[in-house]
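Let's see one such:

===
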Amino acid sequence: MVQVIPIDFRGARAVAGPLTLGQLNVAKWLADAPHAPAARLEQHLPVPPGTTVDAVAAALGALVSRHEGLRSRYTLGDPGEQRVLDSGSVPLDVYDELPAELGGVSAGAPVRFVAAAADGLVTDLAAVYSHIAVDFQALMVLEREFAALLRGEPLPGVALQPLDRAEAECSPARRRRQEQALRHWFRHVEAAPAHLYAGPRADPAGGSGACGMSSEAAARALDRIADRTRTSRPTIVLAAWCALLARRTGYDVCRFVMLSANRFESALSEFVGTLAQSTFVAVDTAGAGFDELVRRAFGAVLQAGVNGAYHVYRQDAGTRERVAARGVAPSFEPLFNSVIVDTRGFDVPEPAAPPAPTDLGWVEMPPTNILLRFDLGRADDAVVARVWSGDTGRVTPGEARELLLALERLLLAAAAQDLDPAGIAAALALPPLPRPPGWRLIDGCWVDLDEVQRLLDEALGPGAARLSGPDLTAVVLDGSVTAEEARRRCLALLPGRHAAMVPRAFVHRALN
């Protein structure tokens, strides 16, 4: 049985204004995929034993009162609106046991709290947030503040609210930075491959799944590399991932999309809102030893972060234009994603006990168009990561497992000493992806000619057009279809095809 307790809040102002760039970004993909799993974020909040429901309700009320994004109502779209309420309530649903599925946020409100209690004492507590109100780093701020409020500790005033951020983003200086960010994005759209990891199909069947790894040995290796390079652990893992990608794909420059937290300014360190946006990162691996690659990865992440805040609707329109002109639809799913804020520091003593054996496991995942993705979830006492794919016919479970083990091997080798390029290749111990006959490198993309032919068959009908010559020319046999129409149909079916591009030219030939 559930008891619904209203969590009352009272703030300093009731005011409305535009969405921030981060909120606009979330609003855009919520409009495209309203039921996506990432539309909401769940958080389990630690509660000391013996804490009463009333104490939890009071702390939650103070938390919502502090942060305007948690007591706002949102109108999605461009420009959209956020409307801050000065008073009201959000629900706390109290159960005997916390349900396995927490559900979504409450109607209109961006947050809902769910607790389990016995005899008036809370045994478990969780929060469900709309992603338009918070991102992963905001969750960490909320957890710290909630713990302090439960202890009765005073908190400093909130320095920056989402509406303040939206106002700052309208300044001339910020506008110039947004224009620079758009130029950064478009420059990479015009050069990126359809997918960095495009390769031949190993299995005709294809599902969606992920291989997860927990490695204490890799975490200890990261501590030693971080001490030597004075660089964060996620950056070191990114460098190792790029070394692996370069080895497998043959690309010297690893160019792909990742998420930027956009918290490079000190004023945003405690900001409760959503700031993360996609940005292109380009890591040049050519001729680099491991420590140099770590430095390059750090610089590339900084460059990507500086260019990580932009107007997403303008970005989308400009991207569509460039995709249509180039005939290549790069994947905009993050290829590397880390949710870690590395506070572990350097000079960490290594435990005396040997590390536990590395654990690897495979799980099925919901269907997705993602060809390959690396997620880093932890890097302190163990590296917890996963490689997953929505096309296990191309990235098989066995390959996902081997990628994780190769990454672990590289970290262990780099922990002992800096590695030159030959040492990196030896530690990875992985061959390049095979490129069978029928694969061509065109405009920076590895293209499967059979896949391009399948694109033509689906767009124009079986046998209506065929590829001819080394320059990716399509010979159209159906005289009723103009070259412009043939190109338009191919473009419409292009997204998600990681090994295809629109033919460079369409010519007509009459049927005999």
Q: What stands out?
A: The chain has 13 helices and 20 strands.
